[in-house]
Design goal:
This protein is of the alpha/beta class and about 240 residues long. The protein has 6 helices and 7 strands; from the N terminus they run βαββαβαβαβααβ. The chain has a single domain (about 5-230), classed as Rossmann fold (3-Layer(aba) Sandwich).
Length: about 240
């Protein structure tokens, strides 16, 4: 069993925001359980990788079982895994709709429901959701009804979790990014996407990873939706 100080579970950890969050946590001495559908094994003794579909109930159970066997505790859960499909509402297919519900909501539900009992037994824990600023700020240039159904659900669930467990040592917060420079955005789109933000730049993966670290180090914050969006929400 590892002797790391704290242990975090990060979903959707193989690339983009998830990978950046894993790196930021490792740099601060955490053990990390990193999971995604196609994640590869890691040679780092402080990283446990678990490949699986986060929307399946058994994946959440396996994450907790293997995390406890390897590290003996879970201090933080970062529900980062998510699918974003920008589409006119009437153009969404049933397949797209079901896929978003499965990853964005089922993934949150099954993972969090399995992690919370561990945190309750420890008497402490922190659950962080990665949502989107579009939940609070709809934009005609980015049609996102189904994203708002799922990520908006996570915003609401974050506040409910925070209140339900506030007296039992568990905090719940969410980070609502603007448009972040990840592999899902082709380089030729970056200039146009930067213009959506009053700061006139896209977010960097490090901006979101540092927000996770900030919330980790802010023990009196719970139920907060932290907008890391270059001023998008403030300007509307």
């Amino acid at each position: 069993m590892s002797d790391v100080r704290k242990v975090a579970v990060v979903t959707g950890a193989s690339q983009g925001l998830g990978e950046g969050i894993v790196d930021a946590l490792l740099a601060r001495g955490y053990g990390v359980v990193a999971t995604s559908r196609n994640i590869k094994p890691s040679s780092n003794p402080n990283v446990l990788t678990i490949a699986g579909d986060i929307g399946e109930p058994e994946t959440g159970k396996r994450i907790v079982k293997e995390a406890m066997e390897r590290f003996g505790r879970i201090d933080t859960l970062v529900n980062n895994a998510g699918i974003f499909i920008a589409s006119a509402f009437t153009d969404y297919t049933e397949e797209q709709y079901r896929a978003k519900l499965k990853t964005n909501l089922d993934g949150f539900f099954f993972t969090t429901q399995n992690v919370i009992p561990v945190m309750l037994k420890q008497g402490s824990g922190h659950v962080i959701q990665i949502t989107t600023t579009l939940v609070s700020y709809a934009d005609t240039r980015i049609p996102s009804v189904v994203a708002s159904i799922t990520k908006g659900g996570l915003d609401a669930a974050t506040r409910s979790l925070a209140i339900e467990y506030a007296s039992r040592g568990i905090r719940a917060n969410a980070i609502a990014p603007g448009i972040v420079k990840t592999p899902m955005h082709a380089p030729e789109t970056h200039e146009a996407l930067a213009a959506f933000h009053p700061m006139q730049r896209m977010g960097e993966v490090s901006d979101i990873a540092e927000a996770v670290i900030y919330l980790e180090n802010a023990p009196f914050i719970t139920g907060e939706i932290l907008h890391v969006d270059g001023g998008m929400i403030a300007g509307h």
